[in-house]
Specification:
Blueprint lengths: L6 E12 L4 E2 L2 E2 L3 E11 L4 E7 L2 H14 L7 H11 L19 H21 L3 H4 L7 E3 L2 E4 L21 H15 L4 E4 L5 H14 L5 E4 L6 H11 L5 E3 L5 H8 L6 E3 L6 H10 L4 E4 L1 H4 L2 H13 L3 E4 L6 H12 L31 E3 L12 H14 L6 H8 L11
Parallel strand pairs: 7-8, 8-9, 9-10, 10-11, 11-12, 12-13
Antiparallel strand pairs: 1-4, 2-3, 4-5, 6-14
Helix pairs in contact: 1-3, 2-3, 5-6, 6-7, 7-8
The chain binds D-glucarate and magnesium ion (MG).
Length: 423
């Protein structure tokens, strides 16, 4: 009987994979990005998998949480949440954060999500259904993602490995070339540029160049709160006809609320609405109109569906956020995105920036910018053990245990402070 199945062992394997020198408000990506791979073994010999953040505090959190998940049925999601809620202390949230995945105030949500997806993978294997069916069934057969452009350097400081194939991405011409290459490779039908790196006038010129090169495609710009409120207000008119949404230009919910009074552009965020508490405050301020969900820090796939219901109730748009990730995360994102009727924007993904993966069959394919929703049981992907061992060895060798974009940038420019907002 499936009801008798129990989780008998949990393995957490940290991995590191090559990540290009991508620039953002905090600095620059390090040569290696970290993730953790979870494997939940059951009494009937199955293994449910998932992928989540891999920084040292997250690994410690997962190790501590393991004891509360062991012995549960893979179907006992509510019990798992209840146990983790009792075990993980609430922490105060900052006013805004560039990477909610590294924020300890999201610990409970991150831990629930990490185990929930692996338990769903087991459930799917047991009942012979893809996760999307356990979430109510697919409302679309493929999930659209956007071309996620970054300003970038041609190679990492100290050249730890061969330079990537993308080259430098700094000038408007180079940004357009990056978009053309990404669209030629993946077929994306919308474009996001990670901003907050150079003078706003330069970033606006890049957006205008993208508008000229791709007249029909929706465009987004995300300065990650590195523009002051005044700068964000001043920049808005030049972006009015260019953007589908204006993502986190300035810091804090109050800042975004004030900006909303000065622009007709819909404001989007993955920085100031990252929990239901912040959602409530946002509704009160009438500020952000598009929320970027992320099951990794919102508390899992069910919590993402809950967020989607709340967005529908309050008439808010819903999109999806991403950090550097591998194929297991991409599959989990695809399952939940396929089960959310009001997820009406193409989702973010960093996946094109990665050239390694640990799933059987290698990197996941995109067709016309979209990923097909799997129809095989559970997540629909399995771990390639040799690839996992290789990326774990990279983790052991790389020496990085916490993401630090600012310290990495100081290797190029010792005067870089990372103070935000910079412009
Ligand atoms: O990976 O550089 C990055 C991004 O800036 C990431 O940290 C953000 O959380 O992609 C994210 C965003 O949309 O704000
Ligand atoms: Mg963002």
């Amino acid at each position: 009987m499936s009801r008798d199945v129990r989780i008998t062992a949990i393995r957490i394997t940290p991995v590191a994979f090559r990540d290009p020198p991508l620039l953002n408000a905090a600095g620059i990506h390090e040569p290696w990005a970290l993730r953790a791979i979870l494997e939940l073994e059951t009494s009937d010999g199955r293994v449910g998998i998932n992928e989540t953040y891999g920084d040292a505090p997250m690994l410690a959190l997962l190790e501590d949480a393991k004891a509360h998940v062991l012995g549960l049925s893979p179907f006992a999601l509510n019990r798992m949440e209840e146990r983790l809620r009792a075990a993980i202390q609430p922490r105060e949230a900052p006013a805004y954060t560039l990477a909610p995945g590294s924020d300890p105030s999201r610990n409970l949500a991150k831990a629930i999500s990490a185990f929930e997806v692996a338990m769903y993978d087991l459930q799917g294997q047991i009942v012979n259904a893809p996760i999307v069916d356990l979430l109510g069934g697919a409302v679309r057969s493929s999930v659209a993602y956007s071309a996620y452009l970054f300003f970038k350097y041609a190679e990492h400081h100290g050249r730890p490995y061969e330079a990537d194939a993308w080259g430098e991405g700094v000038s408007p011409e180079q940004v357009v070339a990056q978009a053309k290459r990404m669209i030629a490779l993946y077929g994306f039908q919308s474009i996001k540029l990670k901003g907050g790196v150079f003078e706003p006038a330069h970033e606006i010129a890049c957006m205008q160049a993208l508008r000229g090169a791709f007249p029909g495609l929706p465009l987004r710009l995300d300065p990650n709160a590195n523009w002051s409120l005044a700068t964000s207000i001043a920049a808005a008119p030049a972006l009015d006809e260019v953007l589908e949404y204006y993502e986190d230009p300035c810091p804090g919910l109050e800042g975004m609320a004030e900006l909303a009074r000065h622009t007709k552009l819909p404001l989007a965020t993955n920085m100031v609405v990252t929990s239901m508490e912040e959602f409530r405050r946002n509704v009160g301020t009438q500020s952000v109109k598009v929320i970027l969900s992320d099951h990794h820090y919102w508390g899992g796939l069910r919590a993402t569906q809950h967020l989607a219901h709340m967005c529908r109730l309050w008439g808010l748009g819903l999109s999806m956020h991403s950090n550097s990730h591998l194929g297991i995360s991409l599959m989990a994102m695809t399952h939940v995105a396929a089960a959310v009727p009001n997820l009406t924007y193409a989702c973010d993904t960093h996946y094109p920036w990665q050239d390694e993966d640990i799933v059987v069959g290698g990197r996941i394919a995109f067709s016309e910018g979209a990923v097909r929703v799997p129809t095989s049981p559970g997540l629909g992907v399995q771990i390639d053990r040799a690839a996992l061992a290789k990326l774990h060895d990279q983790y052991l060798a790389c020496g990085i245990r916490n993401r630090d974009d600012r310290a990495q940038m100081q290797k190029y420019d010792p005067s870089f402070t990372g103070v935000c907002p910079r412009f």
